[in-house]
């Protein structure tokens, strides 16, 4: 499984696909140090907005057969620590 740093969040680079209907789907996670993980499935759980602008998105994702959470806050991606 993808391991974070303790119970905190670990910032990562994420490759996403943007569809014409506005949907954003995360595809790959790139960790510092060169590890890359394919996201096998994702589901948008929550989207918080402020002043008509998306501030935070929370996804439930499956990586290596394990569920975890992926967050996008103001354009910065992080994964749930383990």
What does the model show?
The chain is mainly β and 82 residues long. It has one domain (9-80). It is 0% helix and 66% strand. It contains no helices and seven strands. It is globular. The termini are close together.
Notable characteristics:
seven-stranded antiparallel beta sheet; mainly beta; 82 residues; globular; 7 strands
Q: What is the fold's blueprint, element by element?
A:
Layout: E1 9-18, E2 24-30, E3 36-38, E4 41-50, E5 53-63, E6 66-73, E7 76-80
What is the rounded Rg? 12 Å
The SSE order reads: EEEEEEE
Work out the helicity level. Answer: under 10%
The proportion of residues in beta strands is: over 45%
- Arrangement of strands in the largest sheet: 3-2-1-7-6-5-4
The helix tally amounts to 0
Query: Which structural class best describes the helix and strand composition?
Result: mainly beta
Number of domains: 1
- The span between the termini is 9 Å
Mean pLDDT: 87
Short characterization:
The protein is 0% helix and 66% strand. The chain has one domain. By secondary structure, the chain is mainly β.
